[in-house]
Request: fold
Amino acid sequence: MNQGFPPAPGPTGPAADGQNPYERLGIEPDASFDAVQAARAARLDAVGEDPNARSRIEAAYDAVLMDRLKERQQGKVSSAARSASQREQAQPAPNRPALPSIPSLPQLPAVRISAPTAQLPNLALADGRERWFPLATHGTLLVLLLAVPSLPADLLLALATAATVLNLQRRNGRFLAAVGWSVALLVVGLLLGHLLLVALAPALPPALPLSPFQLEGIPALVLLLLGALLIA
Reply:
């Protein structure tokens, strides 16, 4: 007759009825912790208020937890953790929605800006209407400037500038260029008239019937006439 005691069943060892803890709970050894919890609750509901059956289910549940704790302490990966990792690896990665591509900007053609260069005007004597028109208008204005001192010289110079602009516009068809050259001739003529007045003021005869404004306006009017006749 054997006097020794039978070994106590381990977590995975057989119980009194020949079932190990996993069989008693109705789960696989690689079941997850949530599955173990759900199996325990289902078994307890199934046995009702039977104290012996409930104690066996609680003992099986504790044995499963102790088994998992020993595996973790020994540095082993439990079968449940391995199966969960395998399931995660087997699952395909979720498809990420493709972001809309940014449209590329159209390549603009290179724009080359050349520095403006100053060009002298082409000089050619006008003929036909472009010749007699400035001769008539500027000649008349010059006569009025010399003969009628009461007329304001700035008004006569303004009329002469407008006549030069009109004649240059007819010759080359460029209005802005005509205005620019006419204004430049007027300014240069006024500067020359002022220099002439300063140079002749000490020796200017008192009987000369020319006022300082008339004397300053003569060079400007003559330059405007030459510009209207020669600038092409």
The radius of gyration is 58 Å.
